[in-house]
Amino acid sequence: MAEVRIAEGESLENALRRFKRKVQTEDIIKEVKRHSYYLKPGQKRRLKQELARKRARKKNRRESEQGSRRLNPGSKPGAETGSQPKQTT
Predict the structure, then answer these.
(1) How far apart are CA 69 and CA 78, in angstroms?
(2) DSSP string, 22-53
(3) Based on C-alpha coordinates, what's the Rg of the chain?
(4) Closest of 7, 44, 2 to residue 23, by C-alpha
(5) In the chain, where the domains are located
(6) For residue 21, what are the CA distances in angstroms to 5, 9, 17, 30?
(7) pLDDT, average across residues 49-73
(8) pLDDT over 70 for what percent of the chain?
(9) CA 32 from chain center: how many Å?
(10) What CA–CA distance (Å, rounded) separates 54 from 70?
């Protein structure tokens, strides 16, 4: 359980900020959500497989983006490839 002691002269806002950070690092919220309802073993397995597929897609997408950057290292992110610079008159 996350516990924060307020030091002498410390503001409540700082203590609350430390508490929130501690709760987040200890994954307390995630654990509470996980135990808030029962998942049958089959549902757990499907959820786990779905998350694995999602991570794999994300990894493949990142690798393909990095591969295209390596092919054209001078381009800036978000810039169209092969476009001409704007001419101002």
Answers:
(1) 11
(2) HHHHTTHHHHHHHHSS---HHHHHHHHHHHHH
(3) 24
(4) 2
(5) 9-38, 40-69
(6) 14, 20, 6, 14
(7) 88
(8) 79
(9) 19
(10) 24
